[in-house]
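Before the break, one more example. Copy the sequence into your notebook; we will annotate it together after we see the structure.
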Amino acid sequence: MKKKLDAANENDAFDPIDDTDADTPFIDPDTDNASMLADAGPCPVQCLGHNDGRFYFVTPSGQLRDLVAKSLGNRQEITALMEQKAKWAGRAFPKFNKDGDYVGPDYPRTGEWLIMECAKKGIFSPDKVRGLGVWKDVRGGLIVHCGDKLMLSSGAKSIDAGAALDDGWVYPAQPPLPAQLRPAMFEPANTAQMKMVYDHIKSWNFLEPSGAQICLGIMGLICVCGALDRRPTLWLTGDAGMGKTELLKLLTQPIGGLDYTLRSSDASAAWARAALKGAARPIFLDEMEPGPRAAAAMELARLGFSSDQAGVGRASADQKAILQRITAQFVFGSILHPEPKPQDQTRIHFVEMTRLTPNAQQIAEFEAREAAIRDLGPRIWSRMILGYSRFLSNMLVYRGVLGASSYSRRMTDKFAPVLAAVETLLHDEVIDPAVAADQLSEWGLDTPEVNDSESDECLNHLMSCQVDTWRGGDRPTVGQMIEDILASMNGAVHEYDDGKRMAERILPAYGLRLAKDNDNAPGEFKWLLVANKHTALAKLFRDTRWQGGVHRQALSRIPGAINGDKSGRFGGGISRFVKIPLDILKGGGQDGDP
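Here is what the structure looks like once it is written out:
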């Protein structure tokens, strides 16, 4: 049986693969199979296990293969499985004619032995396969899958792809990355070179002061995306001619450039899933203008954000469950971007670029830096790999500083990895918390950006819906009607009909009602009651993500809201309701003022 290779990076030496202690093979009582196998030497095929009638192997070239039992007695299948070492089957399981002459391998016996070896290994999970990219091993180091070789964090050790490691994952061989594009583990980029890269990124013109930092941080995350717990997305926007595509090209430099990057200007979400093939790689999607395709890609990036999100599950034609893991660093480019949902606002960095008119000297400096950076990619890659432990320490510092700045946990997950990658690339020491706090202030990140929550968006939708009641030549929105009712109750002059009629007849007809703390006592309205189920109200939420009564869940999360257990009458119908404090509606200004 092959000994599993130890995946520890710098601490333990790797033992050579040793098959001399193979388990007892399939025994035919009429032949001496054990001695035959000993003479044949170790099997060139690595048996991984079995699952649902399929048997899994790693071929001599390191590729993953799975076969059904009936195929394992077939000459062509066995030969293809053994590849250039197919003669092993003839030495291990020779077949003789009645005169005792050797006539070739006994393929049925070879197949039976392979089946038994897989049975000894137990159930194999086809999902436990990793392709190209940088992955975290069981001891916290990194494994760099280059296609034909697995490089470890120190760069001092490498093994053939397909070898069994002790982390429970299989790393099958894939088309190799050219040697000159692999991480330059013995010559990482230094701080002066990284400052030049940083200055080069800053030569683009960003609307926000943090734009250059975010882009440099994403470059660093691209280098180790398979080892990350959180992978924030970058979405570059700006008018045509702003240099978005050139900047996207620069961000690919560390991992081999555009020719070795998954990229497209007209890609579907299904393409992105299929193109990964179990790899941990960046995906660059340019020209992703608002529309169904961009919205689907944004949802895919949402799945790729977190390592603890399983991926996309599908069923095959024979009703087998298929899980497509999304381990990717997404980078988008477009003139405009789709309006993000609240959950996307805490995962995606939207960086807007503006026009810059450089002079002759700036152009000359840009071209000089570009030429110098062209061959620096593998060294940037190795700097991030070798600095991975420093990256983790930097991220702990930034998480603490962002938390002290009132960042939510999800917003911290969005910013901390990016800022930690910037610091890891630019400096050789872990950042001091006081310096990190000053950086946030300098880059305009000391105050968290305010995004609408799901409850905000749901309430805004409801308040902006028009009702089928004409007043003064137009149809008021729900919010306008509530304003007029409150104004009339306070004796203010307004342009619509009597507020009492609107409060008692029109609003309830839409599943809405204004209420006081005590309906039988005098005083102002304090609450907006929203029915859980009401036909007219359901029409206002039709074709939104809050249809089908889901609005109740969103609105009940508004601060101060009460998800009532009592029933009320709404336009003749009776329903339970959510009580929303009217102070929430009174907080805004007029005509877009804050």
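The longest helix spans residues 409-426. The chain has a mean pLDDT of 83. Try to locate both features in your own notes.
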